[in-house]
Every structure is written in structure tokens, then in C-alpha cells.
Design brief:
about 220 residues, alpha/beta, five-stranded parallel sheet, three-stranded antiparallel sheet, 10 helices, 8 strands, binds BIS(adenosine)-5'-pentaphosphate
Amino acid sequence: MATYLLLLGTPGAGKGTQAKRLSESLSIPHISSGDLFREHLDEQTELGKLAQRYMSSGDLVPDDVTIQMVHERLSREDARGGAILDGFPRTPTQAQALDEMLAANGEGIAAVLFIKVSEATVIRRLGGRRMCRAKGHIYHVEFNPPDVEGICDLDGSELYQREDDQADTVSNRIRIYFEQTAPLIDYYRSKGVLVEVDGEGTIEVVTQGMLEALPEAASQ
Ligand code: AP5
């Protein structure tokens, strides 16, 4: 049985940071819808140009194109044994589409890790976030700085600040999260797969909390 894990939480809760660490611990790929859109944007594909119109203001990209993009990614060979989904699903329509995609292969969601953090924490985290151009490795100027300022420790590429981490856009992203994504908490709770994790600790402490909270079937 494959292991599909979902990470849920506000923008800046630490989904990308934790997904990368869990991916290494559990040896399953990390699939981030935001990273997939940013790759399309870098390559200037039609999807990238469309996504940019929504991402720059912090709005959600329409469900149909998002679902199609994630479906294509999940169909690749490396995701057959499972995956850690970060940032998808984000609407009830996307959640239903994911259930159908997995059910078509006789699979289901092993656990949804809901990372709980305060709004004040999120604002501090997003304000200081830096990302690497080459592979999207995540840093923070205060909480997780690189060895050399402005340079990725892992691949030497330039670190940059995401356009959607500007204060105005962050407020819109948080508002949209509460309107469109937060209802998924009850959706997954009612299915018995929701696992709540305290996201306020250090990066290492949060990872440890997640690994301890995972149901046995998901951590093997
Ligand atoms: P996306 O890239 O998914 O952004 P997001 O969900 O807003 O999440 P973030 O990447 O901002 O935060 P995160 O929780 O991953 O936090 P991180 O680990 O980086 O989406 C971007 C846009 O794409 C959306 O707005 C939308 O337009 C579009 N999109 C994407 N998916 C979509 C979908 N499914 N449907 C429609 N549209 C979609 O951490 C943040 C910072 O905090 C970092 O600097 C990190 O170093 C630091 N940090 C992390 N954990 C800790 C800790 N424990 N202690 C201290 N610092 C920490």
C-alpha cells in the first residue's frame, strides 16, 4: 500500500520546510503545487503565465488547471509508492478530485498533518523567508539562515524573496486560506485522517512531533 500524506496549514505554517524533511525521512517524493506553478512560471509556459495572474495577488489558481497539473505529477512513476502533498488540496473541489485520483488506483490518504501556528508567527516567518532560485530550498533570515548570506547552502544558487511574501499579498493569502482551505480541516477530521501538530517549535522539534504523530502505517 502506498503512503500519501497531506500537509495542511496557513501560508507560512512550515509546510514546505517540513515536507522536504519528511520526504527524506520517509523516502517518498515531495509534491508542492506552489513549486510546480513556480517551475511553470520560470519556464514561461502557458500554465505558468496563467498562474502568475493569480499568484501575484495571492488568489488561488482555478481548480481545473490545478487538479490537472497535480494529477499529471502524481501519475509519474516516482509517486506510485506514495507522496507528501504540500499546498494541495486547497479547496473542497480539489479534495474530492484527490480522493478520486487515489481511489482509481485503490489508494487513499494515510494522514493529513495539520500544522497549527498563530497568525503572528506566520507573519514573522513569511517576512523573513528566502528561497533558492534553482530548487526552491527554503531559508529564513533569522530562524534558518544560510551559511553565506544570499546563497543556497545546497546548490550555490541565489536566494530571493517571493513576490507574494509582500505584506499586502500575505494578508490576502491568509484571508483566502480561512475562506477556502480551512473547511478541509473538518472534511479530513470527519474521515478520521486528521493529525494536529503544534507548529510553533523549532523546525527540528516540529519534524519530530510529526514523525511521532504519524499513524504506524504511514511511517513504515
Ligand atoms: P504555496 O507556494 O503553496 O504557498 P503557501 O501555501 O502560501 O505556503 P507557503 O509556501 O507560503 O508556506 P509554507 O507553509 O510552505 O511555509 P515554509 O515552509 O516556506 O502557494 C503559492 C501560491 O500558488 C498560492 O497563493 C496560489 O496562488 C498558488 N497555489 C498553490 N497551490 C494551489 C492550489 N492547490 N490551488 C490553487 N492555487 C494554488 O516556511 C515559511 C518560513 O518560515 C520559511 O522562511 C522557513 O524557513 C520558516 N520556518 C518554517 N518552519 C519554521 C519553524 N518551525 N520555526 C521557525 N521558522 C520556520
